[in-house]
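Sequence only, no structure available. Ideas?
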Amino acid sequence: MTPTPHEPDDVALLLAVARRDEVAFAALYDRMERPIFSLIVRILRVRAEAEEVLQEAFWQIWQHADSYRPELGTPFCWMVTVARRKAIDRLRSNTRHLQRIEEAQIGRADDDFGLPEAHERLAADENSALVQAALVRLGVEERRAIMLAFFDGLTHEEIAVALRTPVGTIKARIRRGMLKLRPALAVLRGLDDREGPS
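Reply:
I predicted one. Tokens follow.
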């Protein structure tokens, strides 16, 4: 592919960004923002999310500009690769998020209510036994709401849709459950204080 006349300037700008030149970064952003944003929008199809991913991509470009090698390709191609990966990561994350909502919608009302991932995360913590014991004492509905909110990152509205329950009821369940968990959480805070830096 024949280089376009502006590519040497792009190389100079990106190499300057690698030296933490903020003026060069602003110039590169102004030059590349529109085509890169168009690519991200095509992948995500949601402008608001595309705007977030654009900022994430340019932050990564700022952080890792020193890894760019002119002999391997143009700055535009390198930056597009960074942005494309960020967009695909967001798309995959959204897919997992939607899958978790769907799992919650078909979840059973017993202790096997789709919690393996959350339990794995808890098991990695040395105080997990206290937390798990406290969670087991909660009612199933309270435990479902808390696990979906705090371990799967669902909003109150998403939990309400997943469990086919009014948002106000979900908020009340989480509030009641957290009040019941308070003694266990206080114990954990005490342990953390004792195990803190000496």
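The CA atoms of residues 160 and 170 lie 6 Å apart.
Hope that gets you unstuck.
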